[in-house]
TrEMBL record:
Alphabetized Pfam families for the sequence: TetR_C_13
Name this polypeptide is given: Putative HTH-type transcriptional regulator YezE
Every HTH tetR-type domain range: 1-37
Record PROSITE patterns: HTH_TETR_2
Top-level taxon of origin: Bacteria
Source species: Streptomyces afghaniensis 772
Length: 165
C-alpha cells in the first residue's frame, strides 16, 4: 500500500475510500489485468484464414514472454494469483477461472476451426488439445519465472505444437 501511496501521490485514506480494502483493490487490479490481456488473445486466435498458424504464434509468444527477463521478474498476475491465493480465496479463484476460460475457449474455437479447414487431423480432440495447450501455457509461465534456461520453455512449447500435426 505504501508503494501505491508514494507512486500515486494520494493519501492512503483516498485509496481505501475508493476501493475499500486491500483485498478489494487486488481483485479490481485482477479485473483490470483481465480486461487488458484477454481480448488480445481472442483477437489473435479469431483472425480469418488458417487457424493453426495463429495457435502456434500464441504458444510461441507465451514461451517468449515466459523466458524474457520481464517474465522471469513478474510472471503473470493470473498465474501468480492461482498459485498463491486461489486455494484459499474464493473471490480470487473465481477470477482465475474466468481468466482461464478466456484462454481455453478461444484456443478450442481456433482448433475446431483448424480441424474444419483440414489443418489438423480429424482424429484429434480439439477440446482436449485446447486444455493441454492451456495447461502448457500456464506451466510455461511458472517454469519461465523460476528457470534461467529459456530453452526449457521453448523446447516444451515446440514439442506441444508438434502434437497438432
Amino acid at each position: 500500500m505504501s508503494d501505491l501511496v508514494e507512486h500515486l501521490g494520494i493519501g492512503r485514506a483516498s485509496i481505501y475510500a475508493t476501493f475499500g480494502s486491500k483485498h478489494e483493490l487486488y481483485l479490481k487490479a485482477m479485473d483490470r489485468y483481465a480486461e487488458m490481456r484477454d481480448p488480445l488473445l481472442l483477437a489473435e486466435l479469431s483472425q480469418p484464414g488458417p487457424a493453426l498458424p495463429a495457435v502456434r504464434a500464441v504458444v510461441r509468444r507465451f514461451a517468449a514472454e515466459a523466458a524474457s527477463p520481464e517474465g522471469r521478474l513478474n510472471g503473470c498476475f493470473v498465474t501468480n494469483t492461482a498459485a498463491e491465493l486461489a486455494p484459499h480465496d474464493p473471490a480470487a479463484a473465481r477470477r482465475v477461472e474466468i481468466s482461464w476460460e478466456h484462454v481455453e475457449t478461444p484456443l478450442h474455437s481456433a482448433l475446431v476451426r483448424a480441424q474444419a479447414q483440414g489443418e489438423m487431423p480429424e482424429d484429434r480432440d480439439p477440446r482436449a488439445l485446447a486444455r493441454m495447450l492451456f495447461v502448457l501455457l500456464q506451466g510455461l509461465r511458472v517454469v519461465g519465472k523460476a528457470s534461467n534456461d529459456p530453452a526449457r520453455v521453448r523446447d516444451a512449447a515446440e514439442q506441444a505444437l508438434a502434437l497438432l500435426d
